[in-house]
Amino acid sequence: MSERHDGRRPDELRPIEAKVGVIKNAVGSAYFKIGNTWAYAAVYGPRNLFPRFLQDPSKGILRCNYNMMPFSGSGERVRPGQNRRSKEISFVTQKALTPILDLSEYPNSVVDVFIELPQTEAGSRCAGICAASMALADAGLVMKDLVSAVSVGRNGDMLMVDIDYFEEAYEEGPAADMPMAFVNRTGEITLLQMDGEVTKEMLQEALRMGRGACRQIYEIQKQALKDKYKGGRGGNDE
After folding, report:
1. How far apart are CA 95 and CA 98, in angstroms?
2. 3-class state of residue 220 by DSSP
3. 140 located within any domain
4. Do residues 193 and 181 make contact, with C-beta atoms less than 8 angstroms apart?
5. Mean pLDDT of 184-200
6. Coil, strand, or helix at residue 60?
7. 86-110, pLDDT tens digit by residue?
8. Taking Cα atoms as reference points, which of 32, 208, 51, 15 lies closest to residue 134?
9. 237 inside domain
10. Cβ atoms of residues 69 and 120 within 8 Å
11. What local confidence, expressed as pLDDT, does residue 237 receive?
């Protein structure tokens, strides 16, 4: 099988839209849509961190909050509020983004990133990371680069990038879902998770495919940032 149920090639992404400066009162914000998965990210800070015992006198810290809205899922209704899954994704998002930030100029401070998903159809943590990376850049924080993320899936003997809900629910043979994130300039992997089983050779090929897909996403992220300031235009549109 060389073609997927929606006609995409194994290495083909769903349609992508990206924009920054979309939330008026945030320091930085971004919107990232891939297929039917929509992610909004808003950055607030750096600001003083309380309670004080959490403060680091040598640098600031990054704090991420990931939330799927109750009506967002393609399957069952999502329970409102924090749950184990949202806490886990908040944690891995923070770990994926921290390597690109230089928070040494903001001792005892916190940078908060809030990620909201009003609609999802697989790949939500990766879309959230892409949106958050753009929002941090929009906020003007000192960054080494943007982080790009995508999920590579396995359906039987076939590997494919950016799996959708249908492919995520595959039950006709061996299956796997591998979210991954890269710092594009250095090739550093800042996120690699796996649900399912793959061979060593499949994992190596999945990483190759993921890098290629993230390079495409990276160009879209950069263009969204450039578009905000095209013609000397700054600030939020709304």
Report:
1. 5
2. helix
3. yes
4. no
5. 93
6. coil
7. 999 999 999 999 999 999 989 999 9
8. 32
9. no
10. no
11. 46
Residue range(s) defining the domain that contains residue 84:
16-228
In 3D space, the residue among 108, 101, 107, 90 whose CA is nearest the CA of residue 41 turns out to be: 90
Q: Name the token pair of 195.
A: 């649900």
The CA distance from 182 to 151, in Å, is 12
Question: What distance in Å separates the CA atoms of residue 163 and residue 35, rounded to the nearest whole number?
Answer: 10
**Beta-carbon contacts of residue 63 (< 8 Å; ≥ 6 apart):** 94, 110, 111, 112, 113
Residue 190's nearest CA partner among 82, 123, 46, 94 is 94
Structure tokens, 213? 């897909």
Q: Environment class of residue 211 by beta-carbon count within 10 Å: exposed (0-12), middle (13-18) or buried (19+)?
A: middle
pLDDT at 83 over 70: yes
The one-letter amino acid code at 180 reads M
Q: Is residue 236 part of a domain?
A: no
Q: How many domains are contained in the chain?
A: 1
Tell me whether residue 235 is in a domain. Answer: no
Name the pTM for this structure.
Answer: 0.90
Half-sphere exposure of 31 (CA within 13 A, CB side): 15
Domain CATH number, residue 22: 3.30.230.70
